[in-house]
Amino acid sequence: MKKTKDWFKDRGYPHFSNKTPLSIKDDIERYILNSEKVAKHSFYPLIFKEIKQRRYKLSDFNGIYRHSHKKIDKKGKIVSNTKIREIMYASHIDAHIYSYYAQKIISPKYEDYLMKNNDLSNAVSAYRQILTDDKLKFKNNVHFAKDIFEEIRKRENCVVLAFDIENFFPTLNHKKLKLIWANIIGFKTLPKDHYNIFKSATNFSYVKLNDLRIRKNHFNEKKIAKLKKEGKHTFFENVKELIDSGIVIHKNQKHKNGNLIGIPQGLPISALLANMYMLPFDESIINELTLKKNIFYRRYSDDIIVICKEEQVEFVEDFVDNQVKKIELIISKEKTEKTLFKLDNGKLQSFQIHGTELIKNKPLNYLGFEFYGHKTLIKSKNLASFYRDMKDTIKRKSKRVEKLNEKELKDDSPIFKRKIYRLYSFKGVKSRLLDSKRSEFKNGKLVVKPFKRKFRGNYIKYIYRASEEMNAPEIKMQIRNHWKILQSTIKKYNFSNVKKES
Question: Cα Rg for the chain, rounded, in angstroms?
Fold first, then answer.
């Protein structure tokens, strides 16, 4: 049986508290097991960063639909389609507290609650460790997508409604979350240690990562290096120095009806809290739709899938919308997709429902896959992103060598292909141990230690596994030309020959 995830993780990033190596795990665990200390623990400010993802989507331009990197917003202005995810991450000691409580204390109670109702447990997929039928590994998005597609094949003539909740994490109601949290762990109100963690995840403070780049958009590397020599992998000596620095410490300012709302996305406890918050919604769908009307339901975080008969669509839409409103969230109408599946000349075919119009051969998009009824493919934009990353990496390595040649007055330096092959070709499919080095300062001296880093495989490996798991050879065919594309890109630059990897 596959081992469960360890709550302890030696995080490498600098923060406002020092790194916590594996050697002090026992000390940290003793601290966390003391509920009185956790109840009085002072949580550090979080660090905030934005992850931008440029998207090429079908957008409505005054009635004309076309694929673009832009769209027209509610005010009629043309804006970018770029998706911005706001991520906040905790200091090392705080992250351990969140992780321990999530994995060791709250999650087992939540799992016990779900297991009382098999339909409910099956419906909630994301952020859980669910064993496969053979009990050898945990399910991932390939298995979850496969479950949906198999249900569609079984029903044949059906409609799939895909809903998305608007601004999920930033709009969770704190009072509702607190009540559900207490109920899950078997209390009427939160114990003091849980309440302190609840406060830190709702009434949180944070520093923007870019505000720490104080020297021409770069961090103060001299300061960080000096602290490293003292054994501190931090941005500041202490919190007082952060306060005295003049860098703005922001507070959660998101309100609804005069009340503070939302939790940070990125904490080790955030995903579990979001799942728990959706519990009343999950139960209402199971009780009223699944059990009474044989309607299939799955939820992966804020992505909701409902499979029903064509004549049930309007009823299901209204019911889902009303139940989401009861927990003070909103369904994104813009992202709601309706896909009809029916037999067409003996073949299961997908049709996108767009108003009163049916658009043939428009697939259901779910968890990175496109399902057409008669075939399953990797989402085209994910493949495009893979090839774009491949070409950008090769170009970047080439430019790096060019700059090195200029600096050292060399005519030519080789660019090695080994890492490129490992990341972007079938040669990186196998898991293996790679030689690596870890540097740290001890007593003011730099100590470099060699270690073996586990390489778990690349995106090509993921595609091979998805193709096999879904019994869909057409998935593997999608990357049949990846080697040719890689070689043609490499030929544009001065790469050297290297020995082939075993």
Answer: 25
